[in-house]
Amino acid sequence: MNTLTIIAAAAENNALGKNNDLLWHLPDDFKRFKSLTSGHKIIMGRKTFESFPKPLPNRTHIIITRDKDYEVGHADCMVVHSMDEALALVKEDPLAFIIGGGEIYKIGMEYANHMELTRVHGSFEADTFFPDFDEDQWELTNKEHHPKDERHKYDFTYLTYIKK
């Protein structure tokens, strides 16, 4: 494994989602997510996977669940039961992504060496949160502000971090 990237959009209060849904609609962030993750393996929890209408095109989904009987009948989906199993499936890949949710991000923080965080400027009521992380362990290498506009209800900033 060369690069294991956490990719997330989280509010200033670390809110990620509520009732298995996103709290905002940011088309440019969706485009960036698609462009960064296309062609790669994406690691996620079962609830995150089930929040998609169908598997995301041009990506291999690695779904972590405690449910030993959980199955997904789709060629681009693999079911595993731990982060260790998920990491074993990406160890030969030059790049893989951890895409959520909250619990998977928390576990993945230990293993990731790169982070693409979209910080949504606002605080939201949520039931799922991005984990706090020690900014002393991460170096901010890029920061790109995106003001709100007719297609984006909130300002947001793309933050790229590399683990020190």
From TrEMBL:
Q: In which pathway does it act?
A: Cofactor biosynthesis; tetrahydrofolate biosynthesis; 5,6,7,8-tetrahydrofolate from 7,8-dihydrofolate: step 1/1
Query: What family name appears in the similarity comment?
Result: Belongs to the dihydrofolate reductase family.
Enzyme class, UniProt record, top EC level: oxidoreductase
What protein name does the entry list?
Answer: Dihydrofolate reductase
A Gene Ontology molecular function term for this protein is: NADP+ binding
> Tell me, what does this protein do in biology?
Key enzyme in folate metabolism. Catalyzes an essential reaction for de novo glycine and purine synthesis, and for DNA precursor synthesis.
**Catalysis performed (reactions):** (6S)-5,6,7,8-tetrahydrofolate + NADP(+) = 7,8-dihydrofolate + NADPH + H(+)
Q: Which GO terms describe its biological process?
A: dihydrofolate metabolic process; folic acid metabolic process; one-carbon metabolic process; tetrahydrofolate biosynthetic process
Which UniProt key words apply to this protein? NADP, One-carbon metabolism, Oxidoreductase
According to its UniProt record, the EC number is 1.5.1.3
Residue span(s) of domain DHFR: 3-163
Does the record's keyword annotation contain GTP-binding?
no
UniProt GO cellular component terms: cytosol
